[in-house]
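Forwarding the complex inputs:
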Amino acid sequence: MEHIVIVGASAAGSTTAQTLRREGFGGALTVIGDEPHLPYDRPPLSKQVLLGAWAPDRTSFGPSTTYAEQGIELKLGSRADRLDLDRRTVELATGEQVAYDRLVVATGVRPIRLQQGHELKGVHLLRTLDDAIELRKALVEAASVVVVGAGFLGSETAAAARQLGCDVTLVDVAPAPMALQLGAEVGWMIADLHASNGVRVIGGSKVTCLHGTTAVEAVELADGTKVKADVVLIAVGSRPATEWLDGSGLPCADGVLQDEAPADVYAAGDVARWSSRRFGQSLRLEHRFNATEQAVHVARRILGNDDPFDPVPYFWTDQYDAKIQVYGVVPPDARLVVTQGDPAARKFVAHYVSEGRLSAVLGWNMPRETRQDRALLTAI
Amino acid sequence: MMDVTIDQEGCVAAGQCVLAAPDVFDQRDEDGVAVLLQNPSADQYDATREAALLCPARAIQLSE
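Prediction (whole assembly, two chains):
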């Protein structure tokens, strides 16, 4: 009987397994995950879970019985340590060898750490459910919070901390929050959103060190400013979790290069890099929807469907009352053209145009209209 | 007979269900939350399953 092994038990891994089963795969299926929890959803961690609007278990993708009924073996709390492509085996941290006929790599990403300071109490990272539970506990008690890094995770956490009543400072090396992801113009609008909600936004500033003896006390910036902090979240990006593949011969370069992988190895989710025909570039996306879309694609490819993976990416962020949604890929040099609504009213749709071509559609509190404009991207 | 349930509190207004099955789903004007236009007919089952599969909040439950 054919055995498919999926390493990674988050959105991409569990969706690959469940799609394979639902669409007719009759062989053995094993999903290996390093966290002890059953598969769960990550986007609510920095939103509903931090705010306390959802109990942590509401993020679950379902009880263990679902997997048992589908004939999916979950090996949780098990870290994959090594891959042997010739012998087609995955070695776990326990030394156990798991043999596969086909392998799906869905190990996601790991947060980048600062060089110094993580040993101090009050300094947090946010990737897992346990991280979110710990951070929420700390935020509820905290007076002053510094969030280092104003990408998706940092900006959403700053919003949640502010809504929990903390005094919040959001720092980034970029001039404005999410400028890297959404361009400077939208970045300034997000800076305004945070400022109007009472967050101190410091752009263009690098954190040089964290102060404190056992617990963190302050964050020092490059210009010497010290910002007081009981709680610090480090959200300065992440790296693909591919250390376990080192030396295996599986082609990796900031992610698993799935176009170059052997025929019996696939990749899905945050860890996977592919070359996008539609956008004419190599892409690796740390977005929730991509995890699903790529997982479904990998499952269908295993089942014999040869369609290329060439999606229109979709991502979103929720901060305060703002829902910001993007279809497409935002080029760094793009021009932003507002096509509907009014940014001053915080309700608008805008197009990113680069080299005379529409590359992405952004909506701010206009979900229906934004989705309707997505058709413009597939019409090209 | 396919029964569709939407967890509107869990819905993230991505609109992917409308893209997959435009005759079955729509989005509310004010917040983009998914609404059911009608229970799917047999020829809409595949599209409805695709919508449930792709939902990034797993907010669509089907019972068949």
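Chain B has two helices and four strands.
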